[in-house]
Amino acid sequence: MALYQSISGTVSTELIAVGKKKKIKELTVVGKTAAVVDLYIRGGATTTTYYLLKGMAVPAGVTLVLDSEFLNFNNNVGEYGLYIQLASGTVDILINEQ
After folding, report:
1. Bigger pLDDT: 84 vs 46
2. What is the C-alpha to C-alpha distance for residues 53 and 60, in angstroms, rounded to an integer?
3. Please, are residues 25 and 75 in contact by the beta-carbon 8 Å criterion?
């Protein structure tokens, strides 16, 4: 199953909620316009944030692909959710699950 979402604005967006028990095969970020991306996981029991990407520039028309080895985190109940936040721009996100 795949999840597609278009992201714009500077508000943090939850891509995968804590406890969804999803394994990510691949996450694709496509710059619709030039964007600056933060991709991070945050714990369900804490507010600790762990950045996977911080301030990553994604030019318009460029595709960034992150695989399962890069996105290997515990998504069980009480563990971590996956979030994205833009400093600027617009991106399309495609998440392919295992």
Report:
1. 84
2. 17
3. no
Handedness of CA 21, 19, 8, 69 (dihedral sign): negative
Scored b (16 or more CB within 10 A) or e, 24-33 reads: bebbbbbbee
| Angle ∠(76,77,79) on CA atoms, nearest 5 | 70
SS3 58: strand
pLDDT of residue 44: 67
pTM given for the model: 0.87
Sequence length of the chain is 98
What is the helix, strand, coil percentage profile of the chain, to 5? 0, 60, 40
Supply 26's token pair: 């691949």
For the segment 33-55, the average pLDDT, to the nearest whole number, is 88
Measured in Å, how far apart are the chain's first and last C-alpha atoms?
8
